[in-house]
Every structure is written in C-alpha cells, then in structure tokens.
Amino acid sequence: MDSITIHPLAGGDDLDNVIELCIGYQQTNGRLPLSDQSWIEINSKRRATGGNPPVGYVARNSQNGDIMAYLHLSPDKAGSVIEVVVKSDLAGGEDIARELIVRCVANLTPEEYPLYLWTSDLNRYLSRVAESLGMSKHRELYQMRKPLGILVSNQTGADDVYDVSLQELDISNRGLSFGAFQPGKDEASWLEMNNRCFVGHPDQSDWTIDDLVAREDEPWFDPQGFILCEYEGHIAGSCWTKIHPATEPDGQPAGEIYVICTDPAYQGKGIGGLLLKRALDYFEQRCLPAAMLYVESTNEAALALYRRYGFSIYSTDTQYVLELA
After folding, report:
1. Mean pLDDT score of the chain
2. Is residue 296 exposed (0-12), middle (13-18) or buried (19+ Cβ within 10 Å)?
3. Of 94, 99, 149, 105, whose CA–CA distance to 127 is shortest?
4. CB-based contact 277:241 (threshold 8 Å)
5. How many CB atoms lie within 10 A of CB 265?
6. CA angle 163, 257, 267 (to 5 degrees)
7. pTM above 0.90?
C-alpha cells in the first residue's frame, strides 16, 4: 500500500475532488457510495459561498496528492453516522478505510456517540473493519428489485399471474383520488403525513421543510413521479419515486420506490398497493427495465407486499454501531 496522509476535509478543490471520487465510484459500481443525505450535504456545501465544509476526512497519496478515500461524518438523530468511500480497485483499501475510521473515532466527543457505520455488498471489507474495531451489527437494509415489462407472478411462484388491476375497487366509490405532488403547495401537508407515518424511524422521521426542499432541488426530482393519494381533501398516502440513470448490475437505468407510506388513519385499506402499482406504471411508461427499493429487513409487512408485486432481495446494506465505552 502506498503511504497516505489523512487530513480533515477542506473546501474548494478538496471538496471538488471528493465529489469526483464519488462519481468515479458510481461509474464503476453503478451506485453512489454515499447516502442521499450525505450527498446532499456535500453538494449543498459545494454550491454555497463561504461557510465551513462538511465534516469529513480525506486520505491522500503522499507522493502525488491524489485522493484515495474519503470518510463523511454526519450528525444523526441520536449520535453520528459515518460513510466511507475508497477508490475502486485500490490495493490496500481495507487498511486505508481502517485508518480513516480510527482517525475519526479519535476525534469524536462523547456527545457524538453512538457512532453508526454503513457497509454494503460492494464494500464488505468495511464489515471486517467495523468488527475489528468493536462495532456490532445494528440494522440491515435490503435492496429489492424486479424486472419491468413482464407480468408479475404471485407469491406461490406458480405460472398464474397476480393481476394487480383485479384487486382494485372503483376508486370513485372509495373516495380516493390520485395525482402528482405540487411543489409550493403540498409540502406542509405531505410533511405532516410523512412524520406521522415514520415516527421513530432512524432516517425518515421528523423531516423538516429544509429536508424536503433540498431533495426538490436535486436534479433527479420530478413531481410527476411523486404520487399522492387523497381522501376527502387529505393526503392519505404517497409514493415518491426516483429514476437512476444507471445502476448495478447491468448499467441500465432503474426506477426506485424512494419513499412510500400510508397515513396511519388509512392503513389496512390497500392504499399502499394502489400507490405501488401506479409507481410501477410510471416506470413502465418511461420504458425503464427495472424497479428497485430499499426496505428494513425487519419490516415483514412491507416485505410481503413487495414480494407479492414481484420484488426479490438483490443486496444487503448493514449498519454497525459503536457505543461510547
């Protein structure tokens, strides 16, 4: 392994180089190495004039100064989250990741614990690093996928088809209506509904208008793919989608079920399935070859719904935690 130097992330060229590192990783592996929240933090700081850069650490090649890896540190609702990206196919990547994490841990304050670390099937060596540093498994997040453009088999795996349209009742009789999210109009109502749906969720709970607007400002945002279900003038549920230009394993575009939820007052009425079907129809209309989503491994109800619609587990992201000693 080449000798490296580690230093806190600075702004300017440092931040530009980190973004280039992440984009290069995405081009090689088909997905960004950072979560949406971390990616938004980095890019918002890049666009802002003045102010401090995001909190993170950069590992550089001591000889030529090239960035070899980056650790991003974000405050969490309880503690902190770190994510590590190492240049693809870099020899000694595991050792570099370890040095970055050790440096980060050495500079944490007690208020920043517990510390969480995400690993994926693409950087499984981070699991070995986490365990060697005394971290334990905390959460598992499944990525599920299904091909589009074909009929969906039912749960039994038989050749007969689960025709979702046969499950739908007359929408007008149920008092439900479906339409696209309207920026500048629906933010407050959607946030209220979202935060009722995700009470206590580590990622989706307690969203603010800033969280929502930051995503509206992202280049992938399309209000036509943000489907609302209304009942008597109230948002009863929503399915927010996101189109990826290219994802692993085949480099083809895919549609993601980004956030799907039903207001607790309307759960058990099949709204989630109706929203999911409309999202899949939206992807089909755009000739996308595949759909994907992320779901907690412990969410049995959601897993059953997604399997019924033809999704299967493709990969697993694992979160580790380090408590304050």
Report:
1. 88
2. middle
3. 94
4. no
5. 11
6. 70
7. no
